[in-house]
Amino acid sequence: MSSTPLVCAGLGRRFGTKWALAHIDLSVAPASVTLLAGANGSGKTTLLRIVAGLVRPTLGQVLVFGQDPRIATSYCRQRSSLVSHRGFLYPGLTALETLRLWSSLLTPDNGDNELLELLGSVGLGDEAHSDTSRFSAGMRKRLTLLRVRLENPDLVLLDEPFAALDPAGQVLIESWVGELKARGTTIIMASHAIERAKALCDSAVLLEQGQIAWMGEAAKMPTPGTDLEAQ
Amino acid sequence: MKKMHAFGLVGLALIIVGSIYGLTASPPERHMGDVSRILYVHVPTAWNCLLIYLFAFGFAIASLWTGKQRWDIATTAAIETGVVLNILLLGTGMIFAKPTWGIWWDWDVRLTTSLIALIFYAAILALRTFIDDPNRRATLTAVTCIISFVDVPLIYFGVRWWRSLHQIQSSPETMAETMVFPMRVNAFAVLFISIWFMLLRARIERSKLESDEVVEPPVRRAMATA
Amino acid sequence: MSRPGLARQSLAILGKDLALEWRNRARVVAVVLFGVLVLLLFSLAFGDKGTQVLQVTAGGCLVIALFLSSTLSLQESFRTEDHDDALEGLLLLPTEPASIFYGKALANTFFLVALAPVLIPVTTLIYQVSLGPTQVLQIAGLWLAAAAGLAAPGTLYAGLTTRLKSQDVLMPLLLFPLEVPVLLATVKAFGLVFDGDPMGQLSSWTQLIVAFDVIYWCLCGVLFRFVVEEAA
Predict the structure, then answer these.
(1) Whole-prediction pTM value?
(2) Which residues of C touch A157 (CB under 8 A)?
(3) Does the beta carbon of B85 lie under 8 angstroms from any beta carbon of chain C?
(4) Do B217 and A22 touch (CB under 8 A)?
């Protein structure tokens, strides 16, 4: 099995007549943190969903740890985790019940004590028995981060992790990303919060209209919208 | 001339031969008289309807297995042809039933299951109109086709499992030789015509897809890297 | 890292669905009332033809009430999955699609069986049918088999149509023709139970329902991943 978390070759995806992604050639190094930047509709979410095996590419190839996520679906999903702007939550279940459900579908199956501790670690200890349908966007995001902790993946895909979070929540994300990085987890982060995200990332990819417009060190990434040819 | 039209020509020729023989040379049936001659159309249509649905089942499995569009085209063409044959078999069955048993529709098991098969294959065609993404449409068509076909064997074994007013299932061994010939000829005739219809339908679908083909956009600009 | 087996994952999904339905039990009550309403409407439609007609049609009306109630129950089972892409979240863990199917199909079977303690007594009352203890057990067993026969393809079709326009029309349009063997066999079997089965035909009809159940519980379990995975 390859240790390269992600390789895309000639990747393209069309919805109807519109190409959401085209000519994506990309390789992500292990234990790196990569920023995926770009305006709304530039293809960031589509790329992450293709890597997660949720969307089929129209052209080209994507390999996650050397495997095609549509063929070796279980393997790729065990090694990766997607945090999207949707919470994957069931209205009607409490926070503890939600974690219990996720935990029972993973190994090892954590007991309630461990799950309560996890909830406490993200500031949701008092909300353990609250219905998640009444959670704020920030609380839902924190719960989703716990999902990743339970999954313990080698590759984490973050789709707008700072969205809908208050400053305290954003700091939480930053420290969480730092923890993952220290553990050697590979992270690909799609974000509009360029300045905040750049500081966390090693490399960056700028998408414009579904194609890669710029790729390199995160610190040197130009502001989206800059005329790149003038540089 | 395209090879596919050979199927149509052979089918038409066979149906002319079979029908002329069935209408003139073969004798009337001992109990039903000349009314029985419709069986030379009804029975071959019924056999081929089942066979075409079996093709659709096979194409659906191939469509799920390979994910290739041509198998979805084949599945849809087979379902549409099967639906046409299904309508014809119900129509000819009713035309046979009226003078034979005095009623157009008697809820006989074989006719009833043919009607049910018509409804669920027509429902599959309706389902397709609600799905925009071609890959998703192909997948869901194949799934529903496979699930529906499992019900189709009831058509074939219905007479054996339940008491029925329907004609005891026709097979060459129970018929006079002069009746076997037009039945067989028309069976092949309907098969060839059905294959011709399926090939025509598949060609129409393929040319529609080719005209809808959307080309990948050109590479936007040389990528600047730091 | 290995994942829990099919059975454990299915039980986790079953537990989740049962918990959610318990929280939403007002809706369950509404579905039961709907079933009672269907029985009532049929009895009004046929009632003026005399007691004998009512008794003869009792089995058929009961099965139709089950079928119509099932569409409400089955469609609802996927609304919670769609709400926050929760189903997608399960698939990403990853959870085997077959586990999700069997968990949800078992839950749907349970909900359909839960209709029996109300609908069967209402039928005996309105349609003037009397049942001894043996007959009650026979009806209960047939109901379970019929519920399982509805739940398996019903769960698959509910998942298939959940994001389509006109789901409320498409799902019954696809499901009901497929369920005709279960409908015929259950109606016949109920009728035989009500009449005391003088010719001993009950077992053949029961075998048909059970055969349908076995075929569709296997087939739908295999095909479910194509329904829920867009990239499959």
Answers:
(1) 0.90
(2) none
(3) no
(4) yes
Among C20, C93, C94, whose Cβ lies nearest the Cβ of A93?
Answer: C20
Record: contact B120-C170, CB cut-off 8 A: no
Q: Reply yes or no: is the peptide bond before residue C94 cis, omega within 30 of 0.
A: yes
Interior angle at CA A53, CA A131 and CA A38, nearest 5: 85
**Residue A36 one-letter amino acid:** L
Judge whether B156 is closer than 8 Å to chain C, CB to CB: no
Peptide bond into A108 cis (omega under 30): yes
What domain range is B86 assigned to?
A: 4-22+35-162+174-205
Domains and CATH numbers, chain A: 6-88+153-220 (3.40.50.300), 90-134 (no CATH)
B133, B219, B224 ranked by CB distance to A228: nearest? B224
Selecting from B132, B135, B225 the residue whose C-beta is nearest the C-beta of A214 gives B225
Are the Cβ atoms of C3 and A105 closer than 8 angstroms? yes
| Per-residue pLDDT at B148 | 93
- Which amino acid belongs to residue B192? F
Please state, in angstroms and rounded to a whole number, the distance separating the CA atoms of residues C228 and C232.
8
Q: Is residue A64 within 8 Å of residue A155, measured between CB atoms?
A: yes
Number of H helices, E strands in chain C: 10, 0
* Beta carbons of A95 and A142 less than 8 angstroms apart: no
Partner residue facing B214 (CB), from A17, A213, A222: A17
* Mean pLDDT for all residues in chain A: 89
Nearest CB partner across the interface for A107, out of C2, C86, C91: C2
The 10s digit of each residue's pLDDT in A45-63 is 999 999 999 998 988 999 9
Looking at chain B, the whole-number percentage of residues with pLDDT higher than 90 is 43
DSSP H or E stretch at residue C87: helix C86-92
Q: What is the pLDDT of residue C50?
A: 84
Answer whether residue B30 is part of any domain.
no
Taking phi over 0 as left and psi of -120 to 50 as alpha, with beta for the rest, A41 belongs to left
Low-confidence residues of chain C, pLDDT below 70?
1-2, 198-199, 231-232
Q: Which of residues 172 through 231 in chain A touch C, CB cutoff 8 A?
A: none
Would you say residue B226 lies in a domain?
A: no
Chain C contact set for A56 (CB, 8 A): 230-231
Determine contact: C20 vs chain B, CB below 8 A.
no
C touches which chains (3+ CB pairs under 8 A)?
Answer: A, B
Q: Are strands A186-190 and A18-28 parallel, antiparallel or unpaired?
A: unpaired
In chain B, the number of structural domains is: 1
- With CA atoms as reference, the chain B residue closest to C226 would be B139
Contact A162, A193 (CB under 8 A): yes
The 10s digit of each residue's pLDDT in B146-164 is 999 987 775 445 334 544 3
In angstroms, rounded to a whole number, what is the distance separating the alpha carbons of residues A191 and A87? 17
Q: What is the pLDDT of residue A229?
A: 52
Q: Which of B57, B112, B118, B151 to mutate to test the interface with C (most CBs of C within 10 A)?
A: B151
Task: Report if residue B27 sits inside a domain.
Answer: no
Residue at B215 is within a domain:
no
Cis peptide before B134 (omega within 30 of 0): no
Closest Cα of chain C to B81: distance in Å?
A: 19
For tokens 């698959």, the residue is C156
